[in-house]
User: What shape does this take?
Amino acid sequence: MTSSHSNMKRPSRLVLALIAAGMLGGAGATYFNGTPATAASPLASQEQPLVQSATLPDFAQIAQRYGDTVVNISVRGLKQNAVQPGISPDDPLFDFFKRFPNPNGPESSQQQGPLPIFGQGSGFIVSPDGLILTNAHVVREASEVVVKLNNRKEYQATVLGSDPKTDIAVLKIDAKNLPSAPLGNPNELQVGEWVLAIGSPFGFENSVTAGVVSAKHRSLPDDSFVPFIQTDVAVNPGNSGGPLFNSKGEVVGINAQIFSQTGGYQGLSFAIPIDLANKIKTEIVATGQASHARLGVAVQEVNQTLADSFKLDKPEGALVSSVDTASPAEKAGLQAGDIILRADGKPIVASGDLPALIGTAKPGQDMTLEIWRQGEVLKRTARLGNIDKDIVTNAQKTNAVGEGRLGLALRPLQPEEQREAQVQNGMLVEQVRGSAALAGVQPGDVLIGINGVRVNNIEQIQDTVKLAKKSVALLVQRNGRKIFLPVRIVG
Assistant: This one.
């Protein structure tokens, strides 16, 4: 009985789907047996939908026209081998595992020296004389790079340069009159727009997958310099370095990463915007390397509680939790507790927007910063430095909730504690309870600021808490690292 009930429901759903498809088809008019529906239709009096019709891009034409611009990349190299593969000699369990025989044979467990490595990825031709863009991680540690075209011709490629910070590499093959992919403007992409990927997932060359733009300007934890394009295009190992096309057949990104709990595609794919990749390509072709600017701050997200603490209208911007000594930021007068709202006129909505802008700017460039400090909007100009390593990071994000009073037992720092913490003023947290505990404050933390003002004494903290309506932002130092923790004040 249950089974027949179930079978009866399926056709009804199918009929409804077909009817719905008929009503929404065409350019707004509905046709039954070749006759257009008239105004007498009961649907005619209803409000018209926002989108009357949607036209799918011609995926077949894009793949046919630009598939030859996509290449398969094979790499070979050597990687230093530990005595026990997969276990570092520095690992505490190294001696333990060394006692057991290796399933690959006694010789393999004692093998010394480098091991051969093999890998595959994708890329695409950007100039008829053989310039190819791909990901830096595709050619990492490669001593030999082979590029295979869609017509199955193979070329030995030279790596002109590689930039790990943006994950861009530029290859060159000795060939002429090659088909090249046109480059588009990723800033014109809209969320929900169709996009197409071509690459070699798991070695299946020239595979085509399609989806939509899920979001723009995504900041990922390990790539703060790149404002990624997020899509739901099926991307798997081997797609790395391949192009992401828009509906016009223009490359708007380079497929670079996926977020997955299985190692395979789970609906979250990320591409490097092509304008950033093209900038890096130009620098690498000219100088063999890419340069990145440095401001010299650590920033964190501004949530609603922090926005309330700093009296901001909305939770936007990059909250400066620390400023590097002698950095461009310090020379420009930036302070911990400043909230950067704009950089060169561009709004900083999420904290990740700032490092992405700075990391792609030129060293030596003057950048105008609009900051929020103590209820006022100020402007500062910083001459950006040149970064040698990625020291512009997002500080740990905090989603603090809590009720009750501040809940801190504090005492002034002793001179030796000040020297150890390398601070002139501050209060040592001895006990934590209530809202402060829920916010993440811990005994042993050094409280050095409240609501962007340096802490000098207990009375100053008490006065600030009395005047706070919803919350206060505590700047604490823990193990040499500074971070703001928002603490709610109730009652």
The chain is about 20% helix and 35% strand.
